[in-house]
Design goal:
The chain is α/β, with parallel strands linked by helices and 273 residues long. The protein has a single domain, classed as Rossmann fold, CATH 3.40.50.720. The strands form 2 sheets. It has a 7-stranded parallel beta sheet, with helices on both faces. The chain has a two-stranded parallel sheet with strand order 5-8. Helix 3 runs parallel beside helix 4.
Length: 273
């Protein structure tokens, strides 16, 4: 079991939908949080408002840090800032991520390259840095927020899926490497959740359709993060925190023709549109 009471937890992408839920729930668990997000985000103000809505909680926010994780220098700067706090990180949650929607041929290369930097390279860089410290202490937990898109690549989400497939593979390999040192790695694979990411930038034909994802195909971020926190406590290797993600994963494993057929139909509908 991973004890979250008094644990020092670093959360990237703390201003987003999942990040706010993680902050709220971990404060109630008694964790000591270090929050980080992009420099243009007023994270400190947001964190203060969140604490005000919670009232008294057993946890605390130690600091709010700004970091641009779209390049190696930003990841290194975040590591340096946490080191300056002189507090060993017990749990690293790589939650920061972005999405774009469109066929690869319609997306400017710099946009999908930025997505790969934030969604895949940043978690790899940070995990490698903090894992070394955790191995030295023989204690720690790394949590990577992947996606059902790390199992099923749908048309229009090719770049996003590539980043999440990569993150799932990295997490699996890292899990085996650090297990002898008592370090845990949890991969979280949710489906679409009702967060601002649903309003991501769209390109080509995908920019011409309704941007509203039907409610039955989305999940409540609070419930998703409740199951995620429970999975962290239980040291689960991989968790599908909602029914859609769980069903999708089973279909991919045991009925692979079904998600492939659905993907083809989506692709054909976009072409005809």
């Amino acid at each position: 079991m991973t004890q979250l009471q008094s644990a020092v937890v670093l959360i990237t992408g703390a201003a987003g939908g999942f990040g706010q839920e993680l902050t709220r729930q971990l404060l109630q668990k008694g964790s000591r949080l270090i929050l980080t997000d992009r420099p243009e985000v007023d994270l400190r103000s947001q964190a203060s408002q969140l604490q005000a809505t919670l009232g008294r909680s057993p946890g605390e926010i130690i600091d709010c840090l700004s970091a641009d994780l779209a390049n190696s220098a930003g990841c290194e700067e975040l590591y340096r800032q946490t080191q300056a706090l002189n507090l060993p990180i017990d749990v690293l949650i790589n939650n920061a991520g972005i999405a774009i929607l469109g066929h690869m041929v319609d997306i400017p290369p710099e946009r999908w390259e930025q997505l790969m930097e934030i969604n895949l390279m940043a978690p790899m860089r940070l995990s490698t840095r903090f894992a070394a410290d955790m191995v030295a202490r023989r204690r720690g937990h790394i949590v990577n927020i992947s996606s059902l898109a790390g199992w099923i690549a749908m048309p229009g989400l090719t770049a996003y899926a590539a980043s999440k497939f990569g993150l799932r593979g990295f997490s699996e390999g890292l899990r085996h490497e650090v297990a002898p040192h008592e370090i845990k790695v949890t991969t979280v694979c949710p489906c679409f959740s009702r967060t601002p990411m649903l309003q991501c930038d769209r390109f080509g034909l995908w920019n011409q359709i309704d941007k509203t994802v039907p409610i039955p195909f989305t999940t409540d971020p609070a419930r998703v993060m409740t199951r995620t926190v429970r999975a962290i406590e239980r040291n689960q290797s991989e968790v599908f925190p909602d029914a859609i993600a769980s069903s999708g994963r089973l279909a991919k494993c045991y009925l692979p023709a079904l998600p492939d057929w659905i993907s083809r139909q989506i692709g054909l509908s976009r072409q005809s549109g």
